[in-house]
Design goal:
446 residues; alpha/beta; 15-stranded mixed beta sheet; 13 helices
Length: 446
């Protein structure tokens, strides 16, 4: 990447006698590019390599850059932004040199740290001690552990700079509630705004600083939906929520007496099954603009969930982006939802494997502008439409809908202004001009 940028740098054409000198100069981009640009390039490369799959092990980053030349080595060791990322396994036998670990953290100087720490069944307490002595500099923390029995044995101070905290724990069922140690993080992190809770543990610690959270991502097998509602009740200022719940606990029979109003929530993504009924009945989101719902497991009787879903969406008048994956009863239900949400700009609907007639001519015709009809088309602001599976729509009906929406805005015939790609598995129309509807995709899903 450096050499590519260097080739694009304007340079005077060398004479024959100067060619050897020019080639030597090109071998070290640090002599040509500004240090700030080189630093940003190195940072981008490091970011890419920190996310799997990477061709290097984490302990080689960013040290591997030093093997290129002495000038690169001097630059890397003198550029603290490259050392603020640390991915470390603090299980016994993985940290061989504590002094090297201390030096690595010191090279970031006083910059806030981005930490990814994993701890197995046998923690390395010496390494954890070195790491958490710097917890006041943690800016982002990802913590993966089988349990937190080691937590109380590791000295640590306040998490004064922490803004993002990700929890990844995996435990035996009998350790479901043994996570009180997390309270120490939430209680001492005044800047914490973003939390990922991927754990079967009780998310009760989130309540400690619930009001200051702006985004929440919960993947919590075995945690009852009502427990998650208890947590959300304390998180009054959330803007983005992602919930993936696969609990088998359906003993809860009643939602809260008063639904929780989440007046700042703009994005909600849900994955689950019939237990989501209690969530639909338990919250109100008047400012919700983006909603995504995916069925995690098929249940025989989803009718109560469908009713709760429709009632919930009625309370979301600002909805602009709607995604329903295998979580829609039939075409009539879909039409009712669309009729009550004229602001929708992006719509994606996926049929369940057993649905063969989820999208018919009736749905597509309802989206078609007709000048001779007094009935208004649904979703007048629609820009992207994706239908996957359960499609029984004639080609000419789709074409008429696309043409009507383009002509409605542009005032001309657009048969030649869009491209249609067809195969036995999918039909796609992507409109290349500045009309409201820009993209239509119909996928048969096999």
């Amino acid at each position: 990447m450096l050499l590519l940028l260097l080739d694009m740098t304007p340079m005077p054409s060398p004479s024959v006698n100067d060619q050897h000198t020019a080639i030597n100069e090109m071998r070290d981009p640090l002599q040509v590019l500004p240090p700030e640009l080189v630093g940003k390039i190195f940072q981008q490369w490091l970011q890419n390599e920190l996310h799997p799959p990477s061709q290097f092990i984490y302990s080689q980053l960013p040290v591997i850059l030093c093997s290129v030349s002495k000038s690169w080595r001097d630059f890397v060791y003198g550029y603290p932004l490259l050392w603020r990322h640390l991915v470390i396994n603090a299980t016994q036998g993985n940290v061989r040199n504590l002094r090297a670990l201390e030096n690595r953290m010191d090279r970031s100087q006083l910059l806030p740290l981005i930490m990814d720490i994993s701890v197995g069944e046998h923690p390395d307490y010496d390494a954890l001690h070195v790491i958490f002595l710097q917890c006041g500099r943690f800016h982002e923390l990802t913590l993966g552990a089988s349990d937190l029995s080691w937590w109380s044995k590791v000295p640590r101070g306040p998490f004064s700079l922490l803004t993002s905290f990700s929890v990844r724990t995996w435990m035996h069922p009998d350790l479901l509630l043994g996570q009180e140690g997390f309270n120490g993080i939430f209680a001492t992190a005044p800047l914490l705004h973003h939390v990922k809770w991927h754990s079967p543990a009780d998310p009760e610690p989130l309540c400690t600083k619930g009001s200051q959270l702006r985004s929440l991502d919960i993947l919590a097998p075995r945690v009852p939906v009502m427990r998650i509602l208890d947590v959300m009740k304390t998180c009054t200022n959330l803007r983005t929520v992602i919930i993936d719940v696969k609990t088998e606990d359906l003993m809860v029979m009643h939602p809260p007496r008063e639904p929780i109003t989440m007046g700042t929530l703009e994005t909600l993504r849900l994955v689950g099954s019939k237990h989501l009924k209690y969530l639909f009945e338990g919250i109100r989101t008047p400012q919700l603009s983006s909603f995504s719902l995916r069925l995690a497991r098929y249940d025989a009787n989803l009718e109560p969930v469908f009713e709760a879903l429709e009632s919930f969406l009625v309370q979301c008048p600002m909805l602009q982006h709607l995604t329903l994956e295998e979580f829609i009863r039939d075409e009539e239900m879909l039409l009712r939802i669309l009729d009550s949400h004229p602001r929708i700009k992006r719509l994606s609907v996926t049929a369940s494997p057993c649905q063969k007639q989820l999208a018919t001519d009736k749905l597509v015709k309802s989206l078609t502008f007709r000048t001779e009809s007094s009935q208004k088309a649904l979703l007048p602001l629609l820009e992207e439409l994706t239908l996957s599976g359960g499609i029984n729509v004639q080609d000419n009906v789709v074409m008429e809908m696309i043409q009507s929406r383009s002509s409605n805005l542009m005032g001309n015939n657009v048969h030649d202004e869009y491209q249609v790609h067809r195969s036995w598995t999918s039909r796609t129309a992507a409109i290349e001009q500045s009309s409201s509807l820009r993209y239509v995709n119909e996928a048969e899903c096999g």
